[in-house]
Amino acid sequence: MADESKPSKVDPLEGRSGVHSATRHYINLIEKQNQHRVAELLKHRKRTNLTGLGLFGVVVGIYAYTISAVKQEKFLDDFEEPKFIEKRV
């Protein structure tokens, strides 16, 4: 059974014996450019994921701080209803 985690490399020139050397050179150049592009995209994806995790951490921290700050407020706990004074007629 073949290792399915890595895709097999496909040779676009396989089975074509009459391919010009300039075409082979151009295909190899494009492959190298594509590999470089993929490496750059992976680097950007890693930085983007780290930035997203950092922002998520900040949001969770602000939310937790807000919840804990609201729990500490006691001004409504000691609230007494005002006593009504009866009017004499």
From TrEMBL:
InterPro entries: Coa3, Coa3_CC
Name of protein: Cytochrome c oxidase assembly factor 3
Coiled coil location: none
Keywords (A to Z) from UniProt: Membrane, Mitochondrion, Mitochondrion inner membrane, Transmembrane, Transmembrane helix
Protein family: Belongs to the COA3 family.
Membrane-spanning residues: 50-70
Record localization: Mitochondrion membrane
The protein's assembly and partners: Component of 250-400 kDa complexes called cytochrome oxidase assembly intermediates or COA complexes.
Residues in Cytochrome c oxidase assembly factor 3 mitochondrial coiled-coil domain copies: 34-82
Role, per record: Required for assembly of cytochrome c oxidase (complex IV).
Pfam families recorded: Coa3_cc (PF09813)
Membrane topology summary: Single-pass membrane protein
